[in-house]
Every structure is written in structure tokens, then in C-alpha cells.
Amino acid sequence: MATLTITVPDPTKDWIEARAKAQGFPTIDAYLGDLLERERADDTAEDWPDQPELTIEDLRRIVEESRASGIGNRSMADIISEGNSIAKARGFFRE
What is the average per-residue pLDDT within 57-76? Predict the structure, then answer.
């Protein structure tokens, strides 16, 4: 693991410490590491060529199709498990 040193104004440091604590991170390093990994994942998501950009019309169609399909019979655990599998396959899952 690499070490990176940054310099920020005192108010920024205080803000970072408060955010880390509020979100339950044990250290500033853990908070900033998670923040940067999420940012990196966002960048990676933009690089997926097989994931076309959705238009508002696409989203409306998807919502309408889901409403028309009715209430599902899968359990919440099944839905979460499927979502986790998809996230793992795409490299976005965090344990």
C-alpha cells in the first residue's frame, strides 16, 4: 500500500474529521480511502462500453414496464443476492 501526504487548511481538516466520524470511519485515512475508491468506481463505470447512456425516455419506458409487470414474488434476500452478484461481476461490490 502506498502513502500519500496532502496539506489542507485547518477548517478542511476539521470538516474531514467530522465527516469521517459521522459516517463511522475509524480514521481519516479510512474515510478518504473509501471516498477515493468510490470516485474511482464512478470513473470506471463511465468506461463500460456495454453500458449505454440512458435517456429520460429510456427511464420512463423502464418504469412503465416495471409497473405493468405487477408485483414480484421474489424475496428481498433473493433480490439483494442478485444485485450483489451483478455488482461483483462488474467490479463494484464492496464487502
Answer: 92
